[in-house]
Amino acid sequence: MKNLLSVLKISVSEKVFIKDPETSDLGKRIIENSIILINDIGFEGFTFKKLGKMIGSNESSVYRYFESKHKLLLYLSSWYWAWLEYQLVIETFSIKNNNDKLEKAVTIVTRTVEEDSNFSHINEKLLYKIIVNESSKSFLTKEVDKENKEGYFEIYKRLISRLEEMILDVKPDYKFGLSLASTILEGGLHQHFLGEHFPSITNCKSSETPTFFFNHLVKTSLK
């Protein structure tokens, strides 16, 4: 799997950037350091001016790649979902039993992320923390319907569709496949968020992880 991932390129919609950051050293530094800075100070406090100072470049150089920090967050979110989709496809490809495949899929999309050495300029562990804490800000906006029509969230929706397909492979007559799939994907992030910030209102702690909870939920729902 690692060898295969090393030759794959994570593709993000061209609409979220002005210039593809993967095509230059500066672009990769922008992505690498934006992840570090957003994780450190939060998306609200993050600015291109602060990022420019961090990378030793003018603020205007960042604007040559992204027209706004909102578009940058869309890029980071899309990259994460595409990276997760690759893992989902590759790690479940050889599993023949539908129940086992679905259980593995739920594990992949709800587990705590560790750093992937295949992408040296992106710290997936820090990016995952940003997704848990900040990704909803990429679509909880007035522009969400317009951006959805323009295809900004295709990777995210495709990932949910893949989960739905696995759910229906287990129980073809299940009426709520998309709802369950989107609940798993978003609910996993939310339970990790609660575990970190509001531990008194979740059972997902230490040994009882969100993965255990959602695999239990899926098995119960599909009985």
**Class based on secondary structure composition and strand pairing:** mainly alpha
Secondary structure: helix percent: 55-70%
Write down the overall mean pLDDT: 93
Task: Note the main sheet.
Answer: none
Backbone CA Rg:
18 Å
Q: Could you give the count of β-strands? A: 0
Q: Write the H/E string, N to C.
A: HHHHHHHHHHH
Principal-axes geometry comes out as globular
Beta-strand percentage range: under 5%
The number of helical segments is 11
Unreliable stretches (pLDDT < 50, length at least 5) are: 1-7
Compute the separation of the termini in Å.
Answer: 32 Å
Explained architecture:
Helices cover 62% and strands 0% of the residues. With 223 residues, the chain is mainly α. The chain has a domain at 77-221. Helix 2 packs across helix 7 and helix 5 runs antiparallel to helix 6. The longest helix has 24 residues, at 69-92. The chain starts with a helix and ends with a helix.
Core attributes:
223 residues; mainly alpha; 62% helix
Write the layout of secondary structure elements.
Layout: H1 2-6, H2 25-41, H3 48-55, H4 59-63, H5 69-92, H6 98-110, H7 124-134, H8 144-149, H9 154-170, H10 177-197, H11 210-221
Helix pairs in contact: 2-3, 2-7, 5-6, 5-7, 5-9, 6-9, 6-11, 9-10, 10-11
Question: Short summary of the structure?
Answer:
The chain has 223 residues and is mostly helical. The chain has 11 helices and no strands. The chain is globular, with a radius of gyration of 18 Å.
